[in-house]
Structures are given as structure tokens and as C-alpha cells.
Automatic annotation (TrEMBL):
PANTHER family: ADP-RIBOSYLATION FACTOR-LIKE PROTEIN 15. Transmembrane segments: none annotated. This is ADP-ribosylation factor-like protein 15. Belongs to the small GTPase superfamily. Arf family. It comes from Mytilus galloprovincialis. GO terms for molecular function: GTP binding; GTPase activity; metal ion binding. SMART domains: ARF, SAR. GTP binds at G38, L39, A40, N41, S42, G43, K44, S45, G84, N141, H142, Q143, D144. It comes from the Eukaryota. It holds the Pfam family Arf. InterPro entries: ARL15, P-loop_NTPase, Small_GTPase_ARF/SAR. Keywords: GTP-binding, Magnesium, Metal-binding, Nucleotide-binding.
Amino acid sequence: MDSGKESLIDILDLELFRRICGKAPAAPKPTFSVLCLGLANSGKSTILTLLSGENADGIRPTVGFSIKALMFADCFVDVKELGGSDNVRMYWNKYFCGAQAVIFVIDSAGSKESMETANAELHKALADPELDGLPLLVLGNHQDKEGARSKEQITKELELGLQSTARKWIIHTCSMKNKEEIMAAFQDFNKLLLEMKEKEEREDKTEEQDGEFSKI
């Protein structure tokens, strides 16, 4: 079949689809590459396993890194989770390239020392040029434990107010026993990612238009 006939068939197929469904085919969902960081035992692996719909029983701490593909109503999120043990954190920056956003999980009921370590590791990671300005979700996990910190306490102890205005960040508290809380956090995070993408597309379009005008 020649290319002209193939093009005509494609057009007819699309027109038939529109008549049957009453609308054009939906645009593909955007996909985001996200980095998930946090100290050991903060609950990163369990949270991602719950979101992926898998059985979270018997989850073991991540050694090195693992990748989870999460599907939401409005987008796909490919999460690269890095292990949080002392001997792994020193290599975190080797995996930063290509990330479009960052998730940082903490044990909100952890000791003062663990919060200080989390603070240091978070700010060290965010200072890396590869993560400069990327959106951030902080998850205060283990809210079901005694002594769990509030969002306000976590914000203060992690010094989140020191983030530059160029970085959008949100904080949620959650428990691995309550999937709805985790979903709510990711819904807000996904909204932030989609807004970021729309802004970038508008800026790219403006640059293209400016480039066209400069040629006139």
C-alpha cells in the first residue's frame, strides 16, 4: 500500500474514533523521574511498595538502589530509591543525574541525633548541582509511633525554611498503616510536578515565539 493510501486510512480511523467516542484520543500521561532519599529505616521501601500495590510484608532495607514505577490518575512516576545506610549515603550523588524531583523520607519519631543526621544529609544532597531547584517532597513517616513530630517540628528541625525561593517544596506526615495519607501526599506532589511541567512548556513556547520574531 502506498503512503498516500496509508495516510488516508489513518485519517479515516481517527475520524471514526472521534465519532464513536465523541472526542479525540487522550494525550499520553507525563512521566517523571524522581529520586527517593532518606536514612535507613525511615520507611522508603515500604511506602513505595504500598503505592505500587505490592505486598509490603517482609520488606527488607534497600541495599544500593531500587526502582519503582508508580501509576497515578494524572501521571507516571518512576522512583529511584537509594539505600540510607551509612556506607551507601556516601555514594548518593552518583545517582542524582536525570532526576526531576526529590522525595526525602524521615522517621518522624526518631531520635534527636537521627534528625540532625537527616538534616545534614538532606541539605548536602540538595546542594548538589544535579538537584538544584528541583521540587521536594518531605515525608514525615511513622506518625503512629509515640513521640512522632508534627509538620511544624519537622520543618524547623530540618531547616526547610532555608530553601531558596527557586525550589518548590511541600511536607506531609504519614503512617505506613494509613495508605490514604501516603496517597494524599503524592497527589499534592504530583500536582506540583505537573505545574512545573506546564510552566516549562510555557517558557519553551515563549522562547520559540521570541526566536521566530527575531528572524523577521
